[in-house]
Amino acid sequence: MWVCLIAAWFMIYNGHIQQAAFDITRGFGIGIGNSFTVGGPEMRITYLGFFSDPNDLGMFIVMCLPFSVFLFYTGNIIAKLVTLMTIAAIIYGVYMTGSRGTLLGAMSVIAAYFFIKRAGAKLILVGALIAPIAATLLAAFGGITSGESSAYGRLDAWYDGTQMLLHNPVFGVGMGNFMDEHGKVAHNSYIHVAAELGVIGYSLWGGALILNMLAGYDLIKKHTDWQAPDDKTQALYDREILVNKALFYAMIGFMVTAFFLSRQFTLTMFIFMGMQTASLVRIIRIRPELAYVFEKRNIFKSIGLAWCIIVAVYLALKVGL
């Protein structure tokens, strides 16, 4: 987690340098490694490699927010002060990316924490099912875009994606062929995967993503309090639960931002999913009876819930277009 937060600090600092060096005549500011801002006067910050897009950078920064909260609760006084500054830096970084999807992702992480902590299971399930519809309608009315044409361009891409799926249901149109069919990316990772990989591919991708989230949610709601046979095991279990909780909320940040971006195979997702899975495995080693979270019925349940996202978007498009 410290590695991610240190990386986030460097990226945000680099963004600050970029904006401070902004040249109105050139239309961009240069930072470390010749990284530069995009969007002209908007001065949207970037970094190097696959973080050269402000949306990718913003997604990573948002996913680091729960790590800061985790280290605040588990660290000493110095760590608490550092993490408070880190949280402030993350908020500043989200602002500098100029990404509306990133801002919505950050707000969703915070809202999800209080919602999950207070609400019952049925209310949370209803909220999760309504969220894709609300997000689609938000896009329809231009709530996350800079203009009406951008909003409807995004919705057109989503609608074309659903049509690709309907006409090629089993295997989709093929990996990397969405742009050939539509001309632009889908601006929605879920629609993008479903359109390109069909029922089989999306069931694997979406099912794996939702399975981890269901397992994490189950641990948060049902197994946070547990009396271990000895103090060492108790301390190990309590810390691992907190780690898993931080990763769970980090992945909420990914899932929300990915709803407005085509980042379905980004390295960031696989790294964080890998850490989340590893944390779940460590918890199961401490308490083998929790292995039920990966049982067959939960796998099929995850696939079904993943498809609920696609169905919800499709139904909302009928209203939004």
Automatic annotation (TrEMBL):
Entry GO CC: membrane
Protein name: O-antigen ligase-related domain-containing protein
Organism encoding this protein: Alteromonas halophila
Keywords: Membrane, Transmembrane, Transmembrane helix
UniProt xrefs under Pfam families: Wzy_C
Main location: membrane
Subcellular location, record wording: Membrane
Keyword Acetylation: no
Topology class, membrane: Multi-pass membrane protein
Transmembrane domains' residue ranges: 57-73, 101-116, 123-144, 199-220, 241-261, 267-286, 298-317
Boundaries of every O-antigen ligase-related domain copy: 87-205
Domain of life per record: Bacteria
